[in-house]
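Lab meeting minutes (informal)
Scribe: AK
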Amino acid sequence: MTDAISSYIFYEIAALLVLAASVGFIGLMLRQPLIVSFIAVGILAGPSVLDIARSDIQIDLLAELGIAVLLFLVGLKLDLNMVRTLGPVALLTGLGQVAFTTVFGFLIGLALGFGWLISLYIAIALTFSSTIIIVKLLTDKRELGSLHGRIALGFLIVQDLVVVMAMIILSAVGVGAGQDGAWTEVLAVFGYGALMLVAVGLFIRYLADPLVERLSRSPELLVSFAIGWAALLAALGHYLGFGKELGGLLAGVSLASTPFREAIAARLASLRDFLLLFFFIALGASLDLSVLGASVFAALIFSAFVLIGNPLIVLAIMGAMGYRKRTGFLAGLTVAQISEFSLIFMAMGLSIGHVTEEALGLVTLVGLITIAASTYMITYSHQLYDRVEPLLGVFERKNAGRLEDDGAAPAQAHDVIVFGLGRYGMAISQELSTQGWQVLGVDFNPVAVRYARSQGMDVMYGDATDPEFLAHLPLTDVAWAVSAVPEHDTGITHDDPRRALVLALRELGFGGRVAVAVHSTEMGNEMRQAGADLVLHPFRDAAAQAARLVLEGGGASAALAPADPEGQRELVS
């Protein structure tokens, strides 16, 4: 009998994994993040559709472990040194967005007929944005290091801190709910939490670095330790009354200051995704589609609020602080969705008895709508900005951009402007400078701008695809504009930023010549059709130069010497 039950559970898990892979593939084709596919798997596997997920105990166990690992990875990001150095824009924008969403979300909930407690839960759930999704999308677009990407990451950390506080309060209230002497229980939970914080602080101060350094000699052991540590503190947190979630988060915080946190996070990311699948399966199995259907109108109202209201408050706060409307808009789009924490938060409220399954279903539906819509909004953020830019003037001060420029524009004339100051762009700029050419560098990444300026280079912060910025560049005496902007794998050539740069320069009447670096023949043809005078193939050109050195018999010393950049001297001759 036991063997039969074990076999049935195995068949059930296998079916769920096959379903997850199939739905995930469809989601990939639709350019949707994994969380949307996972929620869809949960609904399909639930009793309302296929009724596959029946092993509640096993699925719930994996789901709880998944939440602990997720919060452990969130804790890994909360380096105390980073938290102390959060900039004012991240702090004010993060707290402002949380306050705005909570207040207006609460009022919308009351207007829709929800009770005050459920309205408060929904409002708080709507404040959390998905760090996982935002980081993934910005990384894919190579914008995580840009100004709006770094600001977004900063206020996402602020949101994570709010998550921590909300879960601490919720866990404490949950302990005392429905009990005599509830306040005594609540105070006991806070007391245990304080003791655990002290213990974690001592661990960070004296044990974390030497212990993790010793474990890092075996990567497999390091991963096993990280999982075990997260599970241990999650279990301890549950035993002391403030929840497995906070225990797992504290486990991550305890290792966040170590130099190996990125390696741990990278190795556990796949395990997190795998285990979170079972959280969403458990969530979907508990949902009734008829309940979701009854919540459609309210979900659309809340979704419109999240998709429009959240970005607007970020845009308004950043505009008031002196940032350009473009930067505020691009950063604001990153909060146009709710996260997996929203569902976890509502699930905790359901377990306490504060909210109903209908409220959980409502927030789940809002999650599906906002995550799906915001994915496209962020992916095509620049095109969306071009459409709405005329309406955003009210969010920009007259002296906007002072905080972004990181220094005034150079006054002297330049022979060449190089857009994109990565390794290739910097190499071109430095070689042209050694040949006596006056070079102006342009980049959208503040880190790259500061580095180039530290090397003595004239440089400006700006977006090469922004016609408004290009119009203010000193183009009159420039002989060459060179694009070394990284290639964005959007799959749509007419949306390529390099093509947009070439077209914008020509529309502005730029009389010099334009060179563009590409990585494929097809893209090179596209750039020529757009008006580029010269197409550079960095890898092909480097290979040809290396082959020439070998064939000329230059010897080891010549081969190790810097290649003679004939093509670059010819470029500006």
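Next up, CB showed the second protein from the same session:
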Amino acid sequence: MTRSPTTTKPGLADPSGQAVWVSCPACGWLIYRKRLDRNLHVCPECDHHLRLGARARIELLVDEGSFTETTFPPGVADPLSFTDLRDYPDRLREAAHRSGESEAVVVGQARIGGAPVVLAVMDFAFLGGSMGVEVGRRVSGAATLAFDRDLPLVTVCASGGARMQEGVFSLFQMARVSQAFARVREAGLFSVCVLTDPTYGGVSASFATLASILIGERGAHIGFAGPRVVQQTIRAELPTGFQTAEFLLAHGLIDRVESRAELRPLLMRLLSLHGPRAAVDRAPAAEERDEGGPEPFGGDSWDVVQKARVVDRPTTLDYLNMAFDDFVELHGDRAFADDPAVVGGVASIGGRSVVVIGHEKGHTVRQRVARNFGMPHPEGYRKALRLLDHAESFSLPVVTLVDTPGAHPGPEAEARGQSHAIAEIIMRSSRLRVPVVAVITGEGGSGGALALCTSDRLLVQQNAYLSVISPEGCAAILWRTAASAATAARAMRLGAAHLVESGVATSVVAEPPGGAHADPAAAARLVREALLRELDDLSQLDLATLMDARCRRLSRIGGSDGQPMRTLQPVLPVEG
């Protein structure tokens, strides 16, 4: 049995019968109940998040007084006439008495930070939050309500899985709720699921993991089969932290892990970023901008390479902090891992919400090692691919920031499909049904960089470059010595000037005197202004014009429009 979230000490209850002192189920520390209430039922000693009922969750998350419950007509209560040691209807009555709820989920409408939402919150106190026919009906009803009223859907899950007493009817609720969530996704409606302790079985394998964004509450246990089932079935030794929210985050399966106190502020930001567009700031006209004496961008190719690689040059995270107004990072490829060499999420810039994806190198040695020097594994590109899908689902423009020596070349990356991951994201971005603006901010190494360069507008900072291979690699192959790297860089004409002259890049972003690393704040301002101009311009295009212009731009790179020079006549056999 799962331990109760609170333990009453004998003789330590108030006149109402409520415990005055509560024992933390994780560390055993005795906590004064009023202090526990003030701390949102989080143990101040060990940070263990004690379980909350559905009503307490709603009170925690929504604007005060804004929740209106949705009621459902009575359904079939006992489809199998099930009896074990007790009749199933008796268990239902007892669960209702203990939890104060009529079922394991509460549905309604509310506001979070002023944004109207449909809410479905599970209560573990009602038969372990198990999903039977009625839970399936109510969760599907919440999704239908969101669909009918064009509102975001927020779910909070706490469940041991499907309800055994309802047999196969319970099992098929997984399909029922999944189909309802599919309609929400197809309609382009935003959804968030908060995964709390515990979320298992049929709930985790259906609607709990089908929302647009998945947030795990700190320390929550989340998985398909519970740890006892795993150990009894395969007799395996489980790793430390198995199936915790933190474990799932490290394996790329959820977007974020948050403390209980941070859940409401995060939901407010996410709803704002995916809500109606605010007034959009326009970039200043050219004559209004103070260029700050930028250096000419036609410098020596090897000098450009050297500046592009400066450790102090601003990275994607630096630009997200300085050039954008807000940024919520989303993690993971939802399949294997969260690659730290690629960062991405939803951001706002000048009143416009966008999806931002970029390579991240870090600055210090420790950061660079942790970020794998900005060289992504396949899961980094698959994370980016998932974010492209997110952008298209919610009609958000995409901004990519490119700075990588190249994709990771190791055997692990090859074993997990590096080439296919790069090919998939290039193909997807080439046909993405929203505007894409890419900025080369440093190194642009080979296909690993091109994966984030396939765009409507390709901007390049004046001390950045894009290359088919590193100068050292080219020199080692063609000159037979890496010492000829500078010669190779000049031969390949690396730098912004060649990219613009050849039509590969659409414009150059000036840098402050000395380079972007000399004044990161000024560099960020120049990047911001360039992005605002490009996003403003692209927002004027209808979808057909956008897609056609992107196709023509990509087809013409290299001096041809992609059409055959002439049609070859078939060669006919000569008679006789």
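CB comment: The chain has 22 helices and 16 strands.
No objections, moving on.
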